Automatic annotation (TrEMBL):
GO terms for biological process: glucosylceramide biosynthetic process. It catalyses: N-(9Z-octadecenoyl)-sphing-4-enine + UDP-alpha-D-xylose = beta-D-xylosyl-(1<->1')-N-(9Z-octadecenoyl)-sphing-4-enine + UDP + H(+); UDP-alpha-D-xylose + an N-acylsphing-4-enine = a beta-D-xylosyl-(1<->1')-N-acylsphing-4-enine + UDP + H(+). Pfam families: Glyco_transf_21. It comes from Amphiprion ocellaris (Clown anemonefish). Keywords: Glycosyltransferase, Membrane, Transferase, Transmembrane, Transmembrane helix. The keyword Electron transport does not apply. It is an enzyme of class 2 (transferase). This is ceramide glucosyltransferase. It is found in: Membrane. Pathway: Lipid metabolism; sphingolipid metabolism; Sphingolipid metabolism. Gene3D superfamilies: Spore Coat Polysaccharide Biosynthesis Protein SpsA, Chain A (3.90.550.10). One of its GO terms (molecular function) is ceramide glucosyltransferase activity. The keyword Cell inner membrane does not apply.
Amino acid sequence: MVHYSRSEVKQPFGQLVGVSLLKPLKGIDPNLISNLETFFTLDYPKYEILLCVQDQDDPAVDVCKKLLGKYPNVDAQLFIGGKKVGINPKINNLMPGYEAAKYGLVWICDSGIRVKPDTLTDLTNQMTEKVGLVHGLPYVADRQGFAATLEQVYFGTSHPRSYISANVTGIKCVTGMSCLMRKDVLDQAGGLVAFAQYIAEDYFMAKAIADRGWKFSMATQVALQNSGSYSIGQFQSRMIRWTKLRINMLPGTVLEPVSECFLASLIIGWAAHYIFRWDMMVFFMCHCLAWFLFDYVQLTGVQGGPLCFSKLDFAVAWFIRESMAVQIFLSALWDPTISWRTGRYRLRCGGTAEEILDV
């Protein structure tokens, strides 16, 4: 493992608690340096940035060194090489940074996330006495192209509908894109090593924290994804991978398709026809239209401002996304293996996995 660091800068700190930011990096995209730079300009009195890169020849290393040089007064370190403790490549990559973390709160945040100067303040403000984990609602930054619109529509309609509903009703639903956690609670659960056997480490970390009696809280700011590499194919593959993980962790996921607009409208339309003798297709169309309108209202609410695409673009993206839902689910059922980062894995019931090695 190669380790680069700079001398820690001592400065007067406020009352906010210290935070260790763990940043897993692999490869680069057009937005990586601008996304990463937003963490160096956080308006927060006491935090450290722990940049973790698996391979010495990864181009992300040069990006990190450039930012380390540009911001010499930011407490930041670069760890290269990782530490093999299980099958999860993200955990392996983060291990050296986690072991070096000096503060009681750890913030694991993906490489494609962009933050505002007060994002960390918002997260720590939610970390009250009985809260063990603070997470952000995943959303997508304004970008160009139809693939970006498709992602933004999904993360502004279907995803937050289930994500927020789950958290409001007490169901622990967390994604690992941006999570602030108590390090001592994670250590009680065995540290990051304990979650290296899972691909969906975020779910099991959240479960371990909840099992120890801690509550969750959601930040007021979204976890803003701003990857510079995106396409319809990448979006579809990502959705299939997430669905496979949910099916293996939570068998009840097999009922998920009935929560999608077209299938739900069809079932409710049939019930309305059977019970009230209403026209099934008229009811189906009216129900879909109401769903569509409420989704648009929800999207504008999550956006918190004007959308960067037209209502026609929204309508097309919404229809395509809803049409893809059942196909994505069936694709996830068909093949229990997933490809993530540079590896392929076979999922087991319960959430564990084994790496598929090429012979």
